[in-house]
């Protein structure tokens, strides 16, 4: 470690201690609880600043905060998975003794086949064996055994989700483009005379509803023309294709803007924490 790095580290530690003490004194009274609260707020603030230090350049403080976040997250989800999946879902179905040991209600039983009762626990040993085979990935000699349960997991997940994604991401999207080009409930079409004599420019009026339906129709139609490569994009066909390009760019831009707004909300939340909870500059 260079001399400059040592000086910077000492300065960060000193700034942390000063911030901790000042935050503890700002609280109502300097008690043990307030000291702990001030310490936790200060740690959270310095970890936030360590993450944002990457905007300057990659540095050891950012790497420390990144590795700490990944490690704590992995440990948290591992503990959650153990208590919810293994203890809460698996063990009560395998053994009554284990269910009693972990203070969980026993969920045993079996299928009555007339001649004998087929216990449920036998079926649950199958995922236990497959899950154990996944851990063989850690073995240099038995790593190939982990491919079988992994292939089963990927194939089963793909098969179960295929219909759901086909329905939500394809059929529903296609059905949403089948919109009436003229009136629909609550504004049924009653002719041009009725339309112009009762023209309503509000967001809930018939004019806006018709306009939005025509935009959807023209946008989908021109977007499909852009992806039709069996005919040269010239003349009216080419103009419709260029309109399709604009529709696609607007769609991608709106989607990207929505994503950016979501990230900006996270930034606002962290800045609010720094200036309100840590520095106390805003109320």
What does the model show?
With 283 residues, this protein is mostly helical. Among the domains are: 109-176, no CATH class; 180-278, no CATH class. Helices cover 71% and strands 2% of the residues. The protein contains nine helices and two strands. It has helices spanning 3-26, 32-52, 60-94, 96-101, 120-134, 147-176, 192-197, 206-226, 235-278; strands at residues 110-112, 117-119. The protein has a two-stranded antiparallel sheet with strand order 1-2. β1 and β2 (117-119) form a beta hairpin. The radius of gyration is 31 Å and the shape is extended. The mean pLDDT is 87.
Quick structural gist:
The protein has helices spanning 3-26, 32-52, 60-94, 96-101, 120-134, 147-176, 192-197, 206-226, 235-278, and strands spanning 110-112, 117-119. A hairpin with a 4-residue loop joins β1 (110-112) and β2. α1 (3-26) packs across α2 and α2 (32-52) packs across α3.
